[in-house]
Amino acid sequence: MPTGIPTDHSPRDRFGPDHRAPGRLGSPNEATDVLALADRLFRWADARDWAGPDPYDGLTGPLGRLAVHRVLRQALLQTVKRSRIDLRPALGIHPLRTATAAGTAAGACARLSSSPVWRERALRLGRSAAAEQLSGRHAGLWRYEFDVQTRWAYYPASVPNLVATTFCADGCLDTGTLDDEAVRCLAHGLLEHLYNGEFFTYTPASDVLVHNANLMGAALAARLARTGTPPADLANRLTDAAYGAVEVSLLGQRPDGSWPYGRGPRLGWVDGFHTGYVLLRLEQAGTLLGVDVRRSLERGVAYYLRHLFDGPLPRYFADGRSRRDPNNDATAVRMAAWAAEHGFAAADFAYAVLAAVVDRYPGLNTDTRAGGSHENRALWESPRWSTAPLLDALTALHTALPRRPQPAAVAVQPTAAAS
Questions:
Q1: Angle (nearest 5°) at CA 257 between 255 and 261
Q2: Burial class (CB within 10 angstroms; exposed 0-12, middle 13-18, buried 19+) of 22
Q3: DSSP secondary-structure letter at 314?
């Protein structure tokens, strides 16, 4: 197999016209110091013990126990999620502290672990996530703390899922808060319950290919195979599974460079944060496995930057209106930093994206509209969906681009191969 991904990171042809970030912060350099924003965001969430609302917590109240049919579950969940008025107090839905938020934030803090303050934060959150690792039938994995009904699946809180497992596992591995036995248990659980012999599945009962979850599983399997903890036969099984899963999603990339959410007639949409997950995990898996995936990355990044941004403002769906969502916005910052680090975009683009989205996060004291009558404030206060992803984006931005670019017109600048 070819080794690694070529590192020709010279940005070349401009992607399109220059854009300046709109809104209160104006230019990219007015997004203030990234570390100061990260510290402020962490303190805001930590003061609340990382507990808060979640977009998918609608089934945790008393009404959720009465919603026994798929349509009722989805209607209740979506009503709570999308309501401009927070219905949770009236419906008896209490703040949640999720392992996924702790794991995501632990990994974000671990990037700054040369600082004793950030190292302590990382360890504390990593231990919190590690404490929620499942035992019993699904030992080694992680779950959500709420039942979920989507258009394609239902999975209760008692069942692990690959997304929660990946974010928690990465945070724990980044902070060293899993012992050798816990790592081996995770590796066995990943292969036994979340791999079907062809690709990694979202839940143990699912047979649906979801590309971002499949590549999360591939990247995690490849990482676990190289920890030195699993015995040789288990490491080989992890590596083989990761190779196969990467191949499945490479074959699922469309001619235009995009990936649909999943394989199936109702899973063909393309959105920003799932595309971001696909690109990040494909690169990670390719690097760990020594597979040259750069061409697929270039095509995917070109599509992502063209169709999922309106200037520096992220789009939720490809070529759609700029619907604001905290996870999508945070992932856009994370991806802009990644794209700049790998030569797919100009450095100032990442700061422009940050400046374009930072105004709605309550923890940053730059919030000018989240409390307005037209906005679902609870969505922006979610530790799992908002705070932890943005903290991850901010620490990634600081690590990738520790020095802010000089003020300049902001444009997306892909490599020539990506255009």
A1: 100
A2: middle
A3: E
Q: What's the pTM?
A: 0.87
Counting every residue, how long is the chain? 419
φ/ψ of residue 266, rounded to 5? -105, 15
Q: Is residue 206 part of a domain?
A: yes
Q: 160 φ, ψ to 5°? A: -70, 160
What CATH number corresponds to the domain at position 325?
1.50.10.10
Residue-range definition of the domain harbouring residue 129:
28-57+93-418
SS3 200: strand
CB atoms under 10 Å from CB of 33, counted, come to 11
Q: Which of 276, 172, 157, 179 is nearest to 220 (CA)?
A: 172
Torsion over CA: 148, 385, 76, 262 (sign): negative
Contact 223, 216 (CB under 8 A): no
Decide if 68 is inside a domain.
Answer: no
| Spatial distance between the Cα atoms of 239 and 234, rounded to a whole number of angstroms | 9
Enumerate the β-bridge partners of residue 52. 96
- 234 CB burial (10 A radius; 0-12, 13-18, 19+): middle
Give domain status of residue 203, yes or no: yes
Q: How buried is 252 (Cβ within 10 angstroms: 0-12 exposed, 13-18 middle, 19+ buried)?
A: middle
Q: How many domains does the chain have?
A: 1
**Dihedral sign for Cα atoms in the order 299, 300, 304, 307:** positive
Classify residue 10: in a domain, yes or no: no
Contact status, residue 354 vs residue 23, Cβ threshold 8 Å: no
Cα 33 to the center of its chain, rounded Å: 23
Q: What is the average pLDDT score of the chain?
A: 87
Amino acid identity, position 303 = Y
Q: For residues 39 and 111, what is the distance between their CA atoms, to the nearest angstrom?
A: 13
Contact between residue 383 and residue 97 where contact means Cβ atoms under 8 Å apart:
yes
d(CA 361, CA 341) in angstroms, rounded, equals 25
**CB neighbour list of residue 299: distance below 8 Å, 6 or more residues apart:** 253, 257, 418
**pLDDT tier for residue 27 given thresholds of 50, 70 and 90:** very low
Range with the poorest average pLDDT among 4-13, 222-231, 394-403:
4-13
Sign of CA dihedral 226, 228, 232, 234: negative
The span from the CA of 52 to the CA of 60, in Å, is 13
